[in-house]
């Protein structure tokens, strides 16, 4: 046998293989109707099932109503399983079962499978070779048993053909690199090769590819290939988006990754970086880039500060970013943060653009205050307050009592 090398031991080439012995199993149910009419055929005379296939060979069940042996004088019924196709030294295990038709489950089982360790599988030398029992069951007992019902007898036969196969371990040493599709598309965007659309953003221009943009953005898809779109346009003027933000959005469209804003704009302060992500979130919402919007939302959640939380909250309200909005509300509601946030220009912007959020902020402050203050919990349990009263705080930190 050719050796397959899988390493070296002491300077010698080592190969391994494994022989696996197993059985290919199959079953056949054989029913004899009119059993009483089969009697009297004479010893050695049989009835046979249809042939059935197991392990690449044909098999059949042979039933002898008056027994196979002349000397038994028809006292027993005989049952055998025979190899019904050509074969030499076919090794197999067998099981013969006569079904109890009373429903009690007391089947008569003769199983070679359970005795396989004693003598091993049975070898059938040629077509017509048999395995079974000459004295399978005494006939008089069978005729009065639960195995016979309505003059019908049912038998199950299971054959397990023994197969031997060789397993040789395979050693795979092919190193498959990770996908570089995103990097390749980023290089395509950078080079401008094959571009068919130019975006004018303030005093900067960006080349891109309509089909890639349309595949990633439903807005671009409608703009280029929709019912009222224009597939022949070759230049678009973009308003209300800063060039670095639009560039970052294009990089995401081509790479499916959130761009590194520090890499795009050089060294940035935390505040400036947050503002960049805020604008990128707005652009993502504008062009229907849901994954980019969620990436920006997660990034803003990680970098909330007292200086930026108010503008981030206003952004979350305007673009229906529910999770980001809740994080901002809870951050501001903490007493240690509330005063500092109220001193920022962003809070004035929040009051002007999203006045409805202030009511939600009051409710959040009340909940946070009640959850964190032992004094508040003690007051809420005081029966003098009544069941419908609750404490809250105004934006200057004064405690108010409100009716619910």
Automatic annotation (TrEMBL):
SUPFAM superfamilies: POZ domain, TRAF domain-like. Residues 25-159 form the MATH domain. Signal peptide: none annotated. Pathway: Protein modification; protein ubiquitination. One of its GO terms (biological process) is cellular response to salt stress. Residues 195-258 form the BTB domain. Residues 372-404 are annotated as: Disordered. InterPro entries: BACK_BPM_SPOP (IPR056423), BPM1-6 (IPR045005), BPM_C (IPR034090), BTB/POZ_dom (IPR000210), MATH/TRAF_dom (IPR002083), SKP1/BTB/POZ_sf (IPR011333), TRAF-like (IPR008974). Belongs to the Tdpoz family. May act as a substrate-specific adapter of an E3 ubiquitin-protein ligase complex (CUL3-RBX1-BTB) which mediates the ubiquitination and subsequent proteasomal degradation of target proteins. This is BTB/POZ and MATH domain-containing protein 3 isoform X1. It comes from Canna indica (Indian-shot).
């Amino acid at each position: 046998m050719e050796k397959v090398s899988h390493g070296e031991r002491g300077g010698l080439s080592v190969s391994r293989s494994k022989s696996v012995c197993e059985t290919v199993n199959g079953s056949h149910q054989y029913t004899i109707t009119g059993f009483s009419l089969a009697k009297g055929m004479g010893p050695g005379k049989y009835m046979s099932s249809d042939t059935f296939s197991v392990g690449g060979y044909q098999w059949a069940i042979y039933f002898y109503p008056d027994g196979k042996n002349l000397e038994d004088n028809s006292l027993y019924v005989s049952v055998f399983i025979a190899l019904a196709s050509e074969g030499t030294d076919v090794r197999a295990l067998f099981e013969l079962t006569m079904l109890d038709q009373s429903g009690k489950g007391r089947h008569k089982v003769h199983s070679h499978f359970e005795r396989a360790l004693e003598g091993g599988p049975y070898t059938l030398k040629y077509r017509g070779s048999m395995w079974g029992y000459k004295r399978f069951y005494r006939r008089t007992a069978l005729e009065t048993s639960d195995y016979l019902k309505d003059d019908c007898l049912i038998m199950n036969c299971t054959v397990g053909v023994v197969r031997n196969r060789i397993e040789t371990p395979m050693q795979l040493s092919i190193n498959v690199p990770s996908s570089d599709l995103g990097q390749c598309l980023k290089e395509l965007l950078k080079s401008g090769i094959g571009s068919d659309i130019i975006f004018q953003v303030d005093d900067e221009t960006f080349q891109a590819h309509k089909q890639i943009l349309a595949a990633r953005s439903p807005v671009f898809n409608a703009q280029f290939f929709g019912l009222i779109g224009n597939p022949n346009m070759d230049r678009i003027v973009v308003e209300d988006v800063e060039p670095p933000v639009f560039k970052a959005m294009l990089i995401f469209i081509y790479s499916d990754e959130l761009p590194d804003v520090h890499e795009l704009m050089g060294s940035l302060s935390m505040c400036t970086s947050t503002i960049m992500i805020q604008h990128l979130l707005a652009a993502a919402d504008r062009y229907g880039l849901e994954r980019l919007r969620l990436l920006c939302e997660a990034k803003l959640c990680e970098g909330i500060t007292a200086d930026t939380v108010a503008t981030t909250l206003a952004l979350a309200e305007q673009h229906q970013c529910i999770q980001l909005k809740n994080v901002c509300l809870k951050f501001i509601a903490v007493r240690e943060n509330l005063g500092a946030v109220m001193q920022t220009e962003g809070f004035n912007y929040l009051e002007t653009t999203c006045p409805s959020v202030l009511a939600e902020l009051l409710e959040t402050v009340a909940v946070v205050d009640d959850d964190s203050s032992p004094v508040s919990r003690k007051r809420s349990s005081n029966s003098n307050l009544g069941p419908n009263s609750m404490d809250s705080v105004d934006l200057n930190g004064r405690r108010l009592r409100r009716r619910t």
